[in-house]
Amino acid sequence: MLEKIKETAGFIGSIIKDTPDFAVVLGSGLGKLQDEVEAIHTLEYSVIPNFPQTTVAGHSGKLIYGMLEDKKVLMMSGRFHYYEGHSMETVVFPIRVFHLLGIKNLILSNASGGVNPDYRIADIAIVKDHINMMPEHPLRGKNIDALGPRFVDMSEPYSRRMISAAEQVAAENNIRIHQGIYVALQGPTFETPAEYGMIKAIGGDMVGMSTVPEVIAARHMAMDVFCISVITDLGGPDIAFSVSHEEVLNAANKAMPDVISLVKGLVKAYQILP
């Protein structure tokens, strides 16, 4: 696996010939953010050695290198999910590659179901912590010592510095945001009303089917992580609204202008540490 990661990083590095300041992973329906990048190179996943293919609508499947607010970014339009049948090793493979490219800052985005009564559809929540309820773990098995330690400190899974910077950007742009705890389930079914109730009971504010494996892999390699979540549906024991992937994409589209402003503002304002 390490050799595959090195091969892929070597291929991408030979093309972009630079070290990006940020890696950005776009979640369901958030692909329009890629239009904000002044693209220098665009690579379809199909031409990248060892890269799998995404199978989910709303995930286009290309890697974009370019400039965003005068910072160098490598943007992943389309992520890989455990529910697609990928191994956890595959799900976090791009994050491993980003690390070997020298990237230290990771921005993730996703769509999630809200259980916090203060949340509304198309609201934006900054993830401050998570609860991992997926049935597999990306670090299970023999540790790759070249990437990180066997036992990983998860006391700060999401960078407090990046959260603070994003809060300031939101205040300056009058963007309504929340901070919340994201619960990761396997999917691909949306949660039942009782399952939404369980998410709330264990301390979650929102629930989704991605992100947490990537965060774990990033923290294993000491990358700083920020995550923005768009609340695309609401659920709970007393809420029986139907939900579809199309509705998720529509809600993400509604939130897109604020998502773009927040991410661009964060990238512009955040001071990169040496």
> What's the number of structural domains?
1
Using the CA coordinates, give the radius of gyration.
Answer: 17 Å
Specify the structural class: alpha/beta
The CATH homologous superfamily is named: Nucleoside phosphorylase domain
* CATH hierarchy, class: Alpha Beta
CATH topology: Rossmann fold
Task: Please write out the topology.
Blueprint lengths: L1 H15 L5 E5 L11 E7 L17 E7 L2 E7 L10 H4 L1 H8 L4 E10 L9 E9 L27 H13 L4 E8 L8 H9 L4 E3 L3 H9 L3 E11 L10 H25 L5
Parallel strand pairs: 1-4, 1-5, 5-9, 6-7, 7-8
Antiparallel strand pairs: 2-3, 3-4, 5-8, 6-9
Helix pairs in contact: 1-3, 4-7
How would you describe this structure in keywords?
alpha/beta; single chain; Rossmann fold; 5-stranded mixed β-barrel; 274 residues; 7 helices
Structure, described:
This protein has 274 residues and is α/β, with parallel strands linked by helices. It has a single domain, classed as Rossmann fold, CATH 3.40.50.1580. Helix content is 30%, strand content 24%. The protein is built from 7 helices and 9 strands. A 5-stranded mixed β-barrel has the order 5-8-7-6-9, surrounded by 4 helices. The model has no long low-confidence stretch (mean pLDDT 91).
Short recap of the structure:
This protein has 274 residues and is of the alpha/beta class. It is 30% helix and 24% strand.
